[in-house]
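Hi support team,

I submitted a single chain yesterday and got back a structure, but I'm not sure I'm reading the token output correctly. Could someone confirm the output below corresponds to the sequence I sent? I've pasted both exactly as they appear in my results page.

Thanks,
R.
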Amino acid sequence: MQNPTKASALALLPLLVFLGIYLAGSIIANDFYKIPITVAGMAASIVAIAMTRYRTIAESIGDYSRGATDHNIMLMIWIFVLAGAFASSTKAMGAVDAIVDLTLRIVPETYLPAGIFFAACFTSLSVGTSVGTIVALTPIASAISAETGCSMPWIVAIVVGGALFGDNLSFISDTTIAATRTQGCSMRDKFRTNVAIVAPAAVITLLIYIFSSEQSITYVATSIDSPWYTMIPYLLVLVMAAAGVNVLKVLVAGILSSGLIGICCGRVSVLDWFSTMGQGIDSMGQLIIITMMAGGMLEMIRINGGIDYLISLLTSRLRSRRGAEASIATLVVVADICTANNTVAIISIGSIARDIGQRFGIAPRRVASLLDTFSCFIQGILPYGAQLLMAAGLAAISPVEIIRYLYYPVIMGLCAALAIVIQRPRCID
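Hi R., thanks for writing in. Yes, this is the structure output for that exact sequence:
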């Protein structure tokens, strides 16, 4: 059925309901476990369906269901399922313990946070996906937290920050591909412009982790019963991901290798392997539910004219190049808040950003860089975004607890905003 609804600010109500119940409620209660994120998602979903005009309830539910089962949503759910199975099976056969012990023996305590951040940056730059990096490194970071006594949300935030670094810059990242294709520029040109903006943010973050004494890390080396070959599943995952293999194939290979090595070496039985995989998948249940709810709710916002309203609001009074760049940044941030997917956000407003860039003489490479950087910034701090949900699910903590420690995404956003204010780096095509 054709949607006759025009751009409307009221369409954003479900998003406000979700944020109001979950964030505001948790802050008031001073406990981020008090209000389950799925309850906030359910309330927002009900509002989104009930407020839709020119459709019957059945039609609205159909629209909601199509958004909840969108291709990108289902792909993410499969990643969640496989990630849960992989994390549990590798932990059961001793892979996580072996890698954590090796890391803590090699890296001095003082430089451990910086080492984890660097590893996450390098991995994400090679893999091209922040979610893949988070899947690979969060279980290790969580185990390090348990061994050293440092804050779990803090150390998980280090991984998330490093993961977003590569998501923003990697040549094989979905966001890079989307940004360059929508603006018609080369990946090399976009990279050169982009790195001038975010490299200072990465250096500042690295220095914070080197010199900050916010978290005390102490570790007493102990003898563990996890031989070197138990690390093979993780090494295999990292090598395959760096080679550009699809993340689903990477996770399947990791699951199979952990099972085969564990069974052949007598570390787990077949039944134990199946049981641990099942537990890992079950642990992703809430994550899967809220992901589908978010997809459905945000589709209803789009249908009801919420995104059209924001685009119209932000582009109606442009006067200068600086203002044009600020509007591009704001557009992609708002689109990402409304879609919870930075790649989709870039694609959604890519043509509008290109038109604005042409109108004010902004080089395509700079437009692409702004789109990618600001989308990664906001995606990295969304409590219902895939990155924080995945990290929180694997670490068994609340996604909101992680946000206060996300130094890199915030510094990256500030550096990008400063680049707009001072109009650097200069890009002339």
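A quick pointer for reading it: The CA atoms of residues 37 and 213 lie 32 Å apart. Let us know if anything else looks off.

Best,
Support desk
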